[in-house]
Please model this.
Amino acid sequence: MNEARPVPAIELAGVRKSFGPMEIIRGVDLVVAPGERHAVIGPNGAGKSTLFHLISGHYRPDGGTIELRGEDIAGMPPQLINRRGLSRSFQVTNIFPRLSVWENVRCATLWAMGHKYAFWKGVERLDEVRRRTEEILTEIDLMDRADVPAGVLTYGEQRALEIGLTIAGSADVILLDEPTAGMSHAEVERVVALIRKVSENRTLLMIEHDMHVVFDLADRISVLVYGQVIASDTPERIKANAAVQQAYLGTEAA
Amino acid sequence: MLEIILVSTLNGVLYGMLLFLMASGLTVIFSMMGVLNLAHASFYMLGAFFGFEISRRLGFWPALIIAPVLVGLIGMAVERYGLRRVHKHGHVAELLFTFGLTFVITEMVEMFWGKLPVDYRVPPSLDFAAFTVFSVNYPAFRLFVLLISVAIFIALLLTIKRTRIGLIVQAALTHPGMVGMLGHNVDRIFMLVFGVGVGLAAIAGVIAGPILITQSNMAALLGPILFVVVVVGGLGSLGGALVASLLIGLVQTFAVAFNVSLADLFGTSQLSAVLEVWLADIWRVTIAQIAPIMPYILLVLVLIFRPRGLMGTRDT
Amino acid sequence: MNQSATISSAAPASTRAGLLVRYGIWIALALTLLLLPYVFSSRLALSTMSLMGTMIVFALSYNMLLGQTGLLSFGHAVFFGLGGFATVHMLNLVGGNSYPIPLPLFPVVGALGGLFFGVLFGAVATKRAGTAFAMITLGIGELVASSALILRRFFGGEEGITTDRTDMLRVFGYSFGPQIQVYYLIAAWCFLSIVLMYAITRTPFGRICNAVRDNPQRVSFIGYDPSTVRFIAFSLSGLFAGVAGGLSAINFEIVNAAQMGAVESGSVVLMTYIGGVGNFAGPIIGAILVTWLQLILSDATTVWPLYVGLLFIGVVMFAPGGIAGLLSMQQPLLAARTLHRVLPYYFLMFVPGAVAVAGLAMLIETSHQFSIRAAYGPRMTLYSIPFDVTTLTPWAIGAVVFAVGLWLFLRAARLARNAYDAALPQRGNR
Model:
């Protein structure tokens, strides 16, 4: 490995995944440097969400390597990957609907705070957990909804909670799958500010369709088309890249 | 020895096909609606009792047609006015609803026919020996049951492969959850599938009733084995259900036929005297005695080595 | 800093006043358990309450699975029964050798037995969730129940294993011969188990159980292994079911294989769900109600399980929160002081509801008499009215009473729902 380059936060090499006869991910290479805000863009059906499922352990890759800070995590179950410091959000809101907002966030802090499966200590007495939960709730601006069951939150609030669950643990590599999907303009702005804030001391990899958000936030952009990364570069160079123009931007962001 | 093997194989396949008659309906209902109908064996029992009652009044052949249709109609009513209502409360509620149904059906049967076995006999027209092998007479009725179950199996296969409903069922088997996108007639399809599914179970009841004992505990005896079949085969897999049905049918029949225990195998020796003290009950248990628990042992083994079942692809 | 401190004290549900209320409930529970024998002092009442105490522990242990972790088990009686057998064998061992161990400690044996088998079977069952889990527990239940009939030495065949609870070391001169002493033993263990099981719901593990119930897949993305959560929940639930089994063994001085069977497993599903799975107190209500129903119904009619089954289906269809769910629905009204506006409607529902039940019972009992009890003749007596079941009249009356009652009940229910909605305070700031 090159000595001048620090160990990447995430490094994928030759990752493949098929569903039946369909090869969805066809040898993806991707490097995300520590502290970077990295966006994955690409047309619908390019395999972006599948890629996230592979990195986060939801699916097991058929081939290739996936490294988290130099450690191979390919094929590990999600919880082990999460404990190694990688956390993700979902495109379709994926929360605990019958638990209160407070409870949702608190559950997401527990493992990172070292409480594991403890059935002998009162959860209300864990001051550190309480402080952390407050901190997260304040950050995602849901403190005044803490006692409401998460299932009755508005769509925008649920999206914010989704991000809250993702950052509540101690993970320093964060994967966000379309965090602004289906939001109004004003909501998008708030979420962008939130993402900017939460990604300050973390590595961020996000899938995003809104090009304003992508070019606003990302340090680097990778373009995924038909299961392959066709370009991975700074936003300026991606804009100028002819192949990307043709494959993707030409049709959508012209 | 050879005669035992032959007759046991026939009986095993027969029992297996009867299981599959029920398991197929159960599997299709599960794939399409996401509900494992715990009351499936209860509908089988209803089939047997309706069959008994109708053949007592009108004869066996009308019973073979009328009883399954009646049970199918009851099933459709249950789906329409019960299950569909519960659907919005989630899967656990649906399972519990069918579970409650097992109680109610069993109690209804006891209310009308009592707890003792009823005298459901093989129809006279089929009460003769079909053939004789090694001086063993094989009853014609059993052969008839075997033929009927195979015929229904083939009819089912053709329906699934050749008809529009069959296409939808196939789609449901491979892509559960997609059924909801088929449009608004999905409610009627559900009702129909539920009715046909429990109707098949009722046919099994009508034809198995004279061979097995028609009694109010027959659902409770058979139900758990039926669920072992669908879990061992792999939830939602028709092929798996067939393999598991035959497997369990054969295993149980052969176990009953072979009456040996560990004590028999070891004979009388110093070692066996020692083992007899330590293993006590297990030592003298014959294979025939453990036949009833064989399906469950199979279940545990399959779960340890193939958690998704023999041919299952799905996690839950 | 100051501001965040005020937020923090207000945020969690348990404020200082809330704590007082919480301990108040426990004191009230303890006092109730202590004083009950003074209110209901007959021998029948004492043994009924002993049974209820046992069933409360059993139903609560079941709700650790169903209500807390979202696991539907159809084989829970296995742990009840095996806990009972462990206790009985230990009682006989200790009694036979006169070891100095007092009786009140023996439910610990049941707990260990339940825990042991919970770990053993849990390792297999909790690999899967949902429907497959339900089927596996059903299979395990059948496996154990049928094995029990084979392993006669340990399980005692159909007769079961008996013991003598009075044969133990006596402390403070209690022999535990009289039912009242057994009642207090069971009450004490019941109280302890309720406290412990409640406490477990308020631990990190308890909360993650709820998360697994809501969304097991998401749990694995916050660091937890959902199957480990299920496994621990299953084992702990086995432990408390074992306590209940131990209490039952002490109470009846006999354990048999039937106590591990499908009927017993089904019965705990019924009582837990009828009581309400979404509320910690639900299974307590369910255990008390169903035990009491079984007692009075089995006296009145031979088809009593039909009534319990119909009640269960009714709850599944119309009140999925169970009785506790219906009660807790009234809480916001109570808080808003609007409950009195709805109560008349509830009464309005109750009257035709009772009429419908009476009509249904008439239909059921008449057909039962007609088809099965025909040997006893066509005459029967219901509600102290003698009649002949071979005539059409009783059927017609039953059907009409049932139909009219049901129709009025449904109308009243609609009115009550509207009244409830109107009385519900508007959702505003919390």
The CA atoms of residues 17 and 62 of chain A lie 5 Å apart. Chains A and B do not touch (no CB pair under 8 Å).
